[in-house]
Each structure stands twice: as structure tokens, then as C-alpha cells.
UniProtKB/TrEMBL annotation, chains A, B:
This is ROK family transcriptional regulator. GO terms for molecular function: DNA binding. It comes from the Bacteria. One of its GO terms (biological process) is regulation of DNA-templated transcription. Residues 2-42 form the HTH iclR-type domain. Belongs to the ROK (NagC/XylR) family. SUPFAM superfamilies: Actin-like ATPase domain, Winged helix' DNA-binding domain. It comes from Kribbella sandramycini.
Length: 394, 394
């Protein structure tokens, strides 16, 4: 019933009964239950009824229920809290040189950020649906980060570690790959503008991941290790990848590859204590000013982006290839070579109809996707949210 | 009900009623209907009942209902008829140099083969569930072969052309990409040995296609153009691909690439008037005899197979990578370099658990998959099969 209202908007109780096949007494009782839990509220009078007593519309009450998404990446930690209608309650990203911090200290910092987000939810008397943690690596058995090449971490039982730090919370705490979560966020984002069933999202950071949605479903692969596009062996042996190999795609398209080519070692743009968007603004300024070294580096990265992009489009034939992270920020210089490669190198006519789109979410995609997944659980099982008199479910 | 018996074996009417929630009178009436259509038959007495009158088991009657799969490939045409239990009624493959024949003449030859298969079904008083045609190229709107680089064909309205040649048949006539159909056949094949949800099948022929099953479903992409792995730009510019580009994967792993390196122009192994398996037997003999040129060519192809294979496994994380077509036939020399590449080049631990398997179906995979799809329709809607007194549904 909750999903029905989410998808098709405010409705009278009589209309809900007719649409769902439930009887009116059941609908009234369910509505009362969901209003108590802060998921529905009474809306305006039903003006669609020409005859009889006007019914009251019932609508989604998003404000009281929030999901939290948090992210560990190579050079930042981030958190966001979204309410049920998708409005941000809090968004924070802090530059952290995670590669030079041990896992325990990193998870401590992340815990502080998550507590900040939960405090923001509490401050509006909201209820917490759950927390999802995005990590830049392989997630095993829904809880262990088994490999994160660019963090230099071995296996870390992230779910257990975080549960301990958050005092064994009652709300669901999920761990997922950041590209998967970013792809889900991009999927929601794009569907607001029209039908999309198949997409590939590229997370442009120090590492490069791929999140793939096919026919509306996330592709996870046999063991959940799909989308490791950054390690496709397509580049010439040259710089060593975070995974220890050479020839990986991310050695030529990752953020480090760009910075390596475009800047000197002591360039402030490389400083991991500065926020990544601020650093990218520095690159943008130079590119706009026509700086030859910057433009050459962007040209090279764009060409390599085209090679890997054409591979992905030949294999998956997505409706949309979404540029995330730094690819989105520097899209004005990277999108065109990618579009040319798709037109030229993809066998399907017109590149199989694939559009290249810059995500509006930038580096916030993964945390948004994480918060959305936490909220999705409310629609699957509204009882995860307690009644108003029971306080916040923590 | 039919699907239930297919999946869980012979059952009494009482058991079917209990399992499906239908009442016994309905089950008896449906069973009678399906027996009349030759889809079910009375089996042995139900020995599982300790008490009361023993019920008669009802089982799948495969013999009377057949599906036909046909295939156009670069150097052969093929057809197969399977009965409902998956047993072959007829299998034929004829060497045809399709690239040097025009589409009309090719479809004429194929029509003869399909008529032969239908005659074999008729000869056993069977009923035809449908015909599926596998093509080595991009299929648009479920009926037009929009591009088949290695045939040198432009767009051909294959479905319309074949319907006209087969006198506008009443049975369903479907067109699909050969790699998709081969992947479905491999999926059925592998599931007999254990659970498999995600696989990638490589069709090794002059062209190289990929059929992908994810979480039990065929991945088709936004416009149905997925799996064009042969045109991934991973090879150095060298031989020109059938698509007119250079650098495509199939220029280094396709059958022509192997023959080009391993044989002289006038070598009978290159003769398209000989059956492809006979030609491959020639290669096998030389490899087994330790012929240096043959082994060097197989080594090169194997190494390149590993590059593209590692890309596919990094992206899709399949449970199984299935070698089809000539890759299966020459598997003893190609499988090992592929396994090494997956172990070494795939980021997930143990290559994400991906096994490399040679398909037992060889070049028959696509026609098998085609026949299976035709038969699948019977389980979706048994009324596509006429009653015995109405004769064959043509």
C-alpha cells in the first residue's frame, strides 16, 4: 500500500481499497497504523469525487523518516541523511587521506560522521530507517570488505567493526560497493527525466568502478564482484595500479593518472587534505584558461575513457553511460572523446542508442544511493519504523 | 501445472492439487486437456501412497511435441529438432560459404533444412511448437538482422523473408542472436550438474560473440545489442575486422585469426566447403603431433583469449565462462592460458570463483537454444499445441 502511494501519489482510502483489492476496513486500519509510524499523513480533500461526501486524501509523510548513507573513499569520508521524499537532511564530506590511515582510525572518523547524521535526524524528531556504508572495494558476504586496492587494506570485517562502534544498533546496517550504490542513485536520478532500464555508471575517483543496472536490476555477478572495470587490462604496461598489476584501465583514467600527467608533485591540486571538488575546480580553471599541459592530460584521459567506455557499451548496451565523480566534474573535456569512441568503436548502429550523461550527484552519488537503500526497506517492511510513542528505532 | 511437473517430476493428480492449490476437479480436467494435446501422459502407479487406493502418476509426454532451432553462420547452416524432453529428433549442419552467397539464396537453403526438420517431426506424428532462427549479428525489433559484419549483409528482414518462404506458418517463428541462444543452451546444460546463476558463453567462430546470463536471466541490453564482445577494442591495429575496424578482439581470437597464423592460404583446413569440425580435427591433429606453427598460433590465440576473458570476468563476475564453438573444440590448448589470465588479471580473489568450462554442445549450442526457446513457449501457453484430432499446428 505504501509503495502504491509512493508510485502513484496521494489517494483516498476508497481509491486505495479499489486499487489494491483490500477491503475498506483493512485499508483504514493500515492507514492508521502507517500514520502512527509517521509514514503517511492526511492530505487535502479528494476533489476528484463529483458526488457524495468528499474523502480525505492520504499521502506519503516523508519528513519523519530518514535513511543514512556513508562512504569511505581514498581521499574523503562522506555521509548524507535523506528523508523519505528524498530531501537531504544533512550532507557532509571531509577530506581524509584514508590510504595513510589505518582501518580502525578511519572507521572511528566515519563513526563520528554517522553520529552527526543521526543527530540531525533526531533533531527533527525523525526516525532512522537504516544506515548503508559504501566502500571502494569488494564486499563479501554482505559485511566484509575483502579487498580495497586503493586503500591498501586487506580484509576488514566492516559490518562487525561498525556495529561495535555504533553500540550494536537496532536499525539495519548494510555494506555495499560504492559503484553499486552510485548506480542505484543515478538510476533514480535519471528516471525522473524519462524511462531508463539499463545503465552503466562510472565512478571517477583514484579508483574507477562500474555500477551496472540491467532491466531495472543491479548486476552483481556470481559472487557480488561485478563492475571491477578499473582493472580491465586495456592499458599499456606503465604506472603500477593500486592492485599491484600494470595495464589496468584506472592507471590511465583514474584521478591519479590525470593529476600525475597534469601537475607537479608539489601542486596543491594533489593535496589530499583539500576537498576533492576544490582540487578539481583548480583543474577546471586551468583547462578554461587553455593551459596546454592540463588540456593534453584531459585529452589523453578522454581518449582512454573512450577505449574502456566502448568496451562496456559493446558488452552491455546500456541506454545511458553515466559519468560520476571526477568524470562528471571534468565532463566538459571528457564527454566528447567518450561520445566519439562510442559512435566509432561500438558495433551497434548509433552506439546502440547509448547516451553519455554527467551525473548531477557528483561525489555524493554513493551516499545518496546508500541512504535510498536504507529507505527502500521501509517500503518492503514498514514495521522497521517504530510508532511515534516508541521513539526513534535505534 | 505443466511447468510444475517439468521441474519436479511425475505426480499424482492429488499431489498436483495439493501443490498448486487448484481443486481436484480442475486438475483432472486440465490433465485431460494436456493429455489430449500430447503434453502429459499417464505414468506408473503412485507407490508413495501407503494407504488408500493408489493414484496414477501423471508425467511429461515429451515425444510428441518438438521445437526447431536453425542457424545461419559464416561457414555453415544448421538445424535441430528437439522433443519436449530435450532429446534430438534431427540434427544437421552443412558447410555453406554464406559470406559469398546472397541473403536470398542463403535463406532458401535454410528453408530446405527447416523443412527437413519439420518433416522429421511429422514422421513421428509430432507437433511443432515453433521455430527459432539464430543469426550471427544484431537483431532489431525481434525480426530484422540489422547488421552481420562477417556475412557482409546489410539489414535483412529475416522474419518476414522466412515467413514468406515457410508459407506464413501458424507456429511462432522467432529470430535471435546466436550467442544469446547458445548461452541459454549452455545454461540448461550446466544446470544439470549443479546450480549456476551467472554465465558468459563465448561463441568461437569466424566472429566471436558473447551470450550472458545474469541471475538466471539473459542480458540483452537497452536495445538488445549486448554481448558484442568480438568488437571490444583491445587488440593492436593489424588485420581488418569484418566490421571494417581494426583492433577488434575477434581479429586476434576469431577462427580466421587462428587459421591465418597457423596455415597457408591453400591449406584444406581453410576450405569453407568442408565441415568446420572436420577442419578443426585437422588443427587438433597437428597440435597433438607437436607442430610448432600450430602450437604458436594456439598460444597466441590463447593469450589474447585471456585478455578479453579477464575483461569480461572483471565486469560480469560470472560463475562460469563457457567456451563454445571452436574454442571448445581446441579447448585443450586454449583453456589454460584463459584460466591463468583469470587468476592473474581478475581483481576478485580466485577470479571471483569463475570456472572455465568447454561446452559439450560445440557448434550445436545455438540451434539447441533455439529449439529450447520454441519449446519454452509450450510451458508458458500449452494451447499453442493443438489437440491430437486437430493435427500438427502448421
Amino acid at each position: 500500500m505504501l509503495r502504491h502511494i509512493r508510485e502513484s501519489g496521494p489517494k483516498s482510502r476508497a481509491r486505495i481499497a479499489a486499487d489494491t483489492g483490500l477491503n475498506k476496513a483493512t485499508v483504514s486500519s493500515l492507514v492508521a497504523e502507517l500514520v502512527e509510524r509517521g509514514l503517511l499523513r492526511e492530505g487535502s480533500a479528494d476533489s476528484s469525487r463529483a458526488l457524495g461526501r468528499p474523502g480525505q486524501l492520504v499521502e506519503l509523510d516523508g519528513s519523519g523518516v530518514c535513511g543514512v548513507g556513508a562512504e569511505i573513499n581514498v581521499d574523503y569520508l562522506a555521509v548524507t541523511a535523506l528523508d523519505l521524499s528524498g530531501e537531504p537532511v544533512l550532507e557532509r564530506r571531509v577530506p581524509v587521506d584514508v590510504a595513510h590511515l589505518d582501518p580502525g582510525a578511519t572507521l572511528d572518523r566515519l563513526t563520528e560522521l554517522i553520529r552527526e547524521a543521526i543527530a540531525a535526524v533526531d533533531a527533527r524528531n525523525g526516525q532512522l530507517a537504516g544506515v548503508t556504508l559504501a566502500v571502494p572495494g569488494l564486499v563479501q558476504d554482505e559485511g566484509t570488505l575483502s579487498l580495497a586496492p586503493n586503500l591498501g587494506w586487506g580484509p576488514v570485517a566492516v559490518a562487525d567493526e561498525m556495529r561495535a562502534r555504533l553500540d550494536d544498533p537496532a536499525y539495519p546496517l548494510l555494506i555495499d560497493n560504492e559503484a553499486n550504490l552510485a548506480a542505484l542513485a543515478a538510476y533514480s536520478e535519471l528516471r525522473q527525466d524519462g524511462p531508463v532500464q539499463d545503465l552503466v555508471l562510472l565512478t571517477g575517483a583514484v579508483g574507477v568502478g562500474g555500477g551496472m543496472v540491467s532491466n531495472g536490476h543491479l548486476l552483481r555477478g556470481g559472487r557480488g564482484y561485478s563492475g571491477e572495470v578499473g582493472h580491465m587490462p586495456v592499458a599499456p604496461p606503465g604506472r603500477t595500479c593500486g592492485c599491484g598489476r600494470t595495464g589496468c584501465w584506472e592507471t590511465v583514467v583514474g584521478l591519479s593518472a590525470l593529476l600525475h600527467q597534469a601537475t607537479d608533485v608539489d601542486d596543491p591540486v594533489r593535496d589530499p587534505s583539500l576537498d576533492v571538488e576544490q582540487r578539481l575546480a583548480g583543474i577546471t580553471q586551468r583547462a578554461e584558461a587553455g593551459d596546454a599541459r592540463t588540456l593534453a592530460a584531459l585529452g589523453d584521459v578522454g581518449a582512454w575513457l573512450g577505449i574502456g567506455g566502448a568496451i562496456l557499451v559493446n558488452i552491455l548496451n546500456p541506454d545511458v553511460l553515466v559519468l560520476g565523480g571526477y568524470f562528471a566534474a571534468l565532463g566538459p573535456w571528457l564527454k566528447e572523446p567518450l561520445e566519439i569512441a562510442i559512435r566509432d568503436r561500438v558495433i551497434a548502429p548509433d552506439g546502440g542508442g547509448c547516451r553519455v550523461v554527467r551525473s548531477e550527484l557528483g561525489f555524493a552519488a554513493a551516499v545518496r544511493g546508500g541512504a535510498q537503500i536504507a529507505l527502500d526497506q521501509v517500503f518492503v517492511d514498514p514495521t522497521v519504523i517504530g510508532r511515534a510513542d516508541q521513539g526513534v528505532a535505534q
